[in-house]
Amino acid sequence: MGNGGSLNESIFKKVLLSYLYVGIWIFLSFTVIVYNKYILDKKMYNWPYPISLTMIHMTFCSALAFLLVRVFRLVEPISISRELYLSSVVPIGLLYSLSLWFSNSAYIYLSVSFIQMLKALMPVAVYSIGVGLKKENFKSDTMINMVSISVGVAIAAYGEARFNGTGVSLQLAAVAFEATRLVLIQILLNSKGITMNPITSLYYVAPCCLVFLFVPWVLVEFPVLRQTSTFRFDYVIFGTNSLCAFALNLAVFLLVGKTSALTMNVAGVVKDWLLIAFSWSIIRDTVTPINLVGYGLAFLGVAYYNHSKLQALKAKEAQKKSTQADEESGLLMEEREGDGPGRKNDSQA
Description:
Radius of gyration: 25 Å
Number of helices: 11
């Protein structure tokens, strides 16, 4: 009973820690989204400069990542050649900078709740781009699921009280760039045996993002910031905002490392519902019944997609264990066959 009690206690602690990691990630993701909305929205803090905000985040994250990797050596760097950096990391950095730029820009035009509804298209974009780049196999049932998610988001968009074409275009572009980035990570890095945690990713990618964002910043936002009389830089606001963004990357590292990426996807659905509720009850964004019906349909599609991924992952692990067991059994048989004649010869001798 003692062993059983300690085993149950160990399982309970593991489950409790998993929920703790999920809770930390949801809280920080929630905080970063609402904080960015607060800074960029013209009715709140009124600092509508998404490129500048993204560059502040990247500068802060680059500096902290450098300290963790090179100074304190808490995270081991990855050996990447110059050719690999230019051919693999740079394209990913370009897509990441565009994704963050457009995603932050959408907060100026759209409500938090509607942005989360549009983000439900991420599995659709990832799967479609994966099929187009031959990273995913086309399956009719999966495509039907993708269509159901798209229809749900379209219904939610139809019922949006504050629909803005510019904001929707920006958010859809952000989804497309982010989905392409995720697929290219698999093609350009993972397929070559290179895996990065969020800290090493920031160490290599964030400086690259800064370079790509500098050009549009000089052309679009710098002239306005230089001429406007309302220009200000609040170190407390932008410092805590950047710290939250960096902490979110650490939370991703913790959550994926201690649980799985699929757990984060499932937790993301919970986070979206919480954000929609918060946006409606606290920020007082208008959420219509048609919004909820459409997002509910998209939510069911995303939930089914995550369930299918989980089942496929379980089947893959079971097949791997079965193959491993067969190989061990084969080795054992070979050992027995090899020992047989030896023992016979020994007895005859």
